[in-house]
Amino acid sequence: MPVNGPDDNPQKARRFREAALPYLDDAYTLARYLLRDKADAEDAVQECYLRAFKHFDSYRGPAMKPWLFAILRNVCRAEYARRASTPTSAIEDAPESAEATPLWHEAQETPEAQLVRRFDGDTIRRLIAALAEPFRETFVLRELQNLSYREIADVAEVPVGTVMSRLARARAMLRSAWLAEQEQPK
Amino acid sequence: MTCEEAEVLLHALIDGELDAGHAREVESHIADCAHCSALLGDYREMSKAVAGADLRYAAPPELRRRIEAALPQPKQTPNRRSVLRGFALGSAVSAMAATGLVAIVLRNDDETRIESEVVSAHLRSLQAGHLTDVISTDQHTVKPWFNGKLDVSPPVIDLTAQGFTLIGGRLDYVDARAIGAVVYRRRAHVINLFVAQTASTEHHAARITTLQGFNIRRWSDRGLNYWAVSDLGADELAEFGDKFDAAMKANTEG
Fold first, then answer.
1. A58 alpha-carbon distance from chain centroid
2. Nearby residues of B137 by Cβ (< 8 Å), 6 or more positions away
3. If we measure between CA atoms, which residue out of B228, B217, B241 comes closest to residue B159?
4. Going by C-beta distance under 8 Å and a sequence separation of 6 or more, which residues neighbour residue B40?
């Protein structure tokens, strides 16, 4: 549905296209990992671009990519809320308390000095998708989108210290899952 | 530094986010600690595996099209209503001009219908396995393929050097008759160039319109009507048309 408003003009649309559309694959990738559903990801990215266009007049920075991601993240959170209210498709992610568990409780249980093996893309995707939500988000923003800690903190609206601890937890959990996957008989 | 601290900070070390002072502290801890050193090795290896595997997703063309279609389009051609309004306001319009105006309005309607048909044909072509009947980047393979299938011989020009890769040809149906489609690609974007015969031999300058989020560049030259349809931006589609015109000119003159 076309967006209409008094300030809409072709020049604005052209500037927006040039600034925002190059990040379409990035936004879609983030949405796929956040929502873990193809159709939902497409809807979220479309909604993100429409919102971004609406607010493009007031856009002064930061860089375009984190700005789009912050909008996309809010769209995805609304989608989580919708799923949570639908009993049949409730999300299964870890409760808030998961984040409060001290890191070393897990880390010391993990096996030592095992060399991690390379997996194919599908296996790695599956392992990342299995991470609980805040950790998956932080991991994808860092490892797949190459955002700095500061940028991740802005997108996720948390302090940089939280980004560091989430990333440490994300990688520790991924490492455990990774090593467990290697144990699987083929 | 304790292992607990190092286990968090070594990630910042991997990511290049530590200042020099802290980096030295973490490194000196790791040098003396087999546990943290092994972890660092694992995490580096994992990051390399993650970076090496292609874990990103490409946005589907349909999503790009939907977003494009929702944004205001660059150039709006006057629609039929505004043409009629202009007519009603022009009190000095003669009867002769009025007749001509009606003809223009009717012809526009006809053109709009055909444009919507070429967009539909373009959409059909994007479905799996429908894009090309003859696949070749060689114009000398694609052009003869059309022989005997159509009452016209569509010009097939290789524009690879100009940034538009010829990928093949196809028979399509527009306005209830067979029509030639020459298919080009620019990055991930497909351009269908539809070519049909016309009774008129006059030259019509190119015009770009937008329909359902697709850009259409329409022109006529030497007894042929052309419609280039793509989800490319209007500027790049105009560039395609210019390159095509230039190559046609070079062909006929050379």
1. 24
2. B158, B160, B165, B166, B167
3. B241
4. B10, B13, B14, B30
From chain B, the residues in CB contact with A148 under 8 A are 17
As a whole number of angstroms, the distance between CA A82 and CA B242 comes to: 49
Phi-psi region of A24 (alpha: psi -120 to 50; beta: other; left: phi over 0): alpha
Pair A21, B39: CB distance under 8 Å: no
Cβ-contact B159, B240 below 8 angstroms: yes
Is the four-CA dihedral A30, A34, A35, A38 of positive or negative sign? positive
Q: What is the pLDDT of residues B8-66, one digit of tens each?
A: 899 999 998 888 888 899 999 999 999 999 999 999 999 989 988 889 999 999 999 99
Tell me if B217 sits within 8 A of B227, measured CB to CB: yes
Please list every residue in chain B whose beta carbon sits closer than 8 Å to the beta carbon of residue A142: 15
CB within 8 Å of chain B, chain A residues 105-164: 107, 112-116, 118-121, 124-125, 128, 142-144, 148-149, 164
Residues of B in contact with A49 (CB under 8 A): 67, 70
Q: How far is CA B138 from CA A57, A128, B228, B236, B246, in A?
A: 47, 44, 20, 23, 19
Contact state of B57 with A12 under an 8 Å Cβ cutoff:
no
- Chain B: residue whose CA lies nearest to A46: B67
B67 touches chain A (CB under 8 A): yes
Integer Cα distance of B77 and B14 in angstroms: 55
Rounded CA gap, B225 and B203, in Å? 9
Instruction: State how far residue B126 is from chain A, nearest Cα, in angstroms.
Output: 18
Beta strands B177-186 and B204-211 are: unpaired
Alpha-carbon distance of A145 to A137, in angstroms, equals 11
* B206-221: pLDDT as tens digits: 888 888 788 999 998 8
Beta strand residue intervals within chain B, DSSP E: 134-135, 165-174, 177-186, 189-197, 204-211, 214-221, 224-230
